Input
Amino acid sequence: MLFPFFNISSKLIQMNILRILIFAFIPAVLAGELFAQVKNEHLNLKDGLAIEGYDPVAYFVTGKAIDGKNNLSAKVDQITYRFSSAANRELFLKDPQKYQPQYGGWCAYAMGDNGDKVEVDPETFKIIDNKLYLFYNAYFNNTLKKWNADEGNLKKNADLNWKKTIK
Output
């Protein structure tokens, strides 16, 4: 008897109940994976790796950008994060949203300036209100300096532009 708690003796009824449960469960799992994929398409990832492998917790704990280690990683919503220590990984797993970069890991200045998704230099960052913001910094163009010159307006615009991007 497959479902003794239902007190159903007919094998045909039991098999139909089993089919219903399976066919209800599989689409729910697939829908969850599809949602994660759609959500993740807006994120700055390289082969599913966030922040180019930098430790998201280190920004907060040490105030520095520190490379994560291949053997110290965690996967959240199909995104891989790397960590410089097991302690940082544990902190992250307790509250991933606290440590994830804003605007999907794209350049905060570009998101505020025109809503573009621009690559970042993970070593150019700022913590604002306990949130991580990353910036483009290459070819004599450090966008963190531009951000600092008009942070209030740029942050407000970046928040609005990001909401439009993920819809």
About this structure: Helices lie at 11-40, 58-61, 86-94, 96-99, 108-113, 143-149, 151-166. The radius of gyration is 22 Å. Residues 85 and 124 are 21 Å apart (CA to CA). Strands lie at 45-46, 49-50, 69-76, 79-83, 121-128, 131-135, 137-138, 141-142.
